[in-house]
Design a protein that fits this description.
This protein has about 450 residues and is mainly α. It is built from 17 helices and 7 strands. Helix 4 runs antiparallel to helix 5 and helix 8 packs antiparallel against helix 9.
Length: about 450
């Protein structure tokens, strides 16, 4: 199994009709008797802010049954009891970290973050296997290197909460990858030569909500590339059959329908390049980012447009996708793209007592307790990579793999927005056919 494009930003924010990853709701199902006690969890999912911002239940999903399957699967796949419970504890730790984000209070004229009620912090530190008091200190006042000395820099409540969220997302992503690696160790025989393989790619369609943010432009950019892949394969093959059958047919390159939009994202000084540049510029703001996008793209790329004030009057720009025109709100994109980790906390985790946490951050340099010797001004290897550049790199790898395959497609259509058996909303179905190229193929 290979992990592509894990949307970890959804871990700490969901829209009203979204549910977070199912693992959290499985944990709360009481299927495993001693699990909540070991994970320091209450009996109410609403006690955990990170995972209760959107929908809490789905009629077609039995969380208790899913937890039973997951618990049994861990055993079948060769996880020890300790390894299995460490995965559960890391997942629960993220839930507690959401509550910790709400515990920071401003103190003094500088309004520096402090924590008065340490209840949630104690649970987080216990699950992480680190000292609670030092953890609080370094979330509120992380260590930074100034010259050759380390200093503690006070944080605002928003910055401290963002630091906690960043660590939480990293814990989930890194735990997820370790679980996949363990599954591969069990399921794959390294001595076998891979001659043929069957890959299954499951991805949602274009996302068009009332509020479209960082998560939506990422998934819609991916869908733009995948739709081009679908069009070029399906329609090119179909047209080749027409030629073989001797039909009078003028070939149409359906794949090029999407190229201008893809180029707008990928070309030098395109949307992703501007986004990357602004993310690495220390004084950049949402406003400067918006101004730079409009200056570089509006009027120069046909797929970049001014936003429609409905339904989001605060949207900053629009992209004319293959599926539809989508207005995007770029608030907080720059910070999400940097997604920095608090190196001082990572160093604590690397020296803590939670073995899985230590494994999660094994490849992270952390923050040495001793001041490192000067390395001659050379940059750290792999430093400064943004979420968008990492995302694009993974997407490029995925597309390279896909173009080497002989693809077959199953196009799924959501019949209604309420997950009701037998319910059909004709407008919704028709919209999906327009978005996914089915009507173009029929025409």
């Amino acid at each position: 199994m290979v992990v592509y494009l894990l949307e970890k930003s959804r871990l700490t924010y969901q829209q009203p009709l979204e549910r977070c990853y199912h693992a959290f709701y499985n944990l709360m199902s009481d299927q495993v008797p001693d699990l909540k006690e070991k994970c320091l969890l209450s009996n109410d999912i609403k006690d955990y802010w990170f995972v209760s911002q959107g929908k809490l239940t789905v009629p077609s999903i039995d969380d208790r049954e899913d937890m039973q399957y997951a618990d049994e699967a861990f055993d079948v796949l060769g996880f020890s009891q300790d390894e299995k419970y460490d995965v559960f504890k890391n997942t629960a730790c993220m839930m507690h970290m959401g509550n910790m984000c709400k515990d920071f209070v401003p103190v003094g004229k500088e309004e520096q973050a402090e924590i008065k009620n340490e209840d949630n912090c104690v649970k987080v530190a216990t699950l992480m296997g680190i000292d609670c008091e030092w953890m609080i200190t370094y979330f509120c006042k992380p260590k930074l290197k100034v010259g050759t000395e380390w200093v503690n820099k006070g944080s605002s409540c928003a910055a401290a909460a963002s630091s906690v969220s960043g660590i939480a997302r990293a814990i989930y992503e890194r735990t997820f990858r370790i679980v996949v690696e363990k599954c591969n160790e069990t399921l794959c025989d390294p001595t076998m030569k891979k001659v043929h393989y069957i890959g299954v790619l499951d991805i949602a369609g274009f996302e068009i909500f009332d509020y479209n943010g960082f998560e939506q432009i990422c998934i819609n950019y991916v869908n733009e590339k995948l739709q081009q892949f679908f069009n070029s394969h399906m329609f090119t093959l179909e047209q080749e059959e027409y030629v073989r059958e001797g039909l009078d047919w003028a070939n149409v390159d359906f794949g090029m329908d999407l190229q201008k939009c893809i180029d707008m994202f990928e070309k030098p000084m395109g949307l992703l390049a501007v986004f990357e540049e602004e993310s690495l510029f220390p004084k950049a703001t949402d406003q400067t980012f918006c101004e730079k996008l409009h200056a570089n793209l509006l009027g120069k790329w046909p797929n970049f447009a001014k936003p429609n004030p409905r339904p989001d009057p605060d949207a900053h720009f629009a992209v004319i996708h293959y599926a539809a025109t989508v207005s995007y709100n770029l608030t907080a994109w720059l910070e999400k793209n940097k997604d920095p980790l608090n190196d001082t906390i990572v160093e604590m985790i690397k020296n803590g007592s939670n073995s899985l946490m230590i494994q999660c951050f094994a490849d992270h340099p952390g923050q040495p307790l001793e001041t490192p010797k000067d390395d001659g001004g050379r940059k750290k290897k792999g430093g400064g990579k943004t979420v968008s550049s990492y995302f694009k790199g993974q997407l490029d790898d995925l597309m390279t793999t896909l173009y080497k395959t002989e693809p077959h497609f199953i196009r799924c259509v959501v019949p209604n927005t309420h997950k009701e058996p037998g319910g059909v909303e004709s407008g919704l179905v028709m919209h999906q056919y327009q978005c996914n190229g089915v009507l173009a193929g029929i025409a």
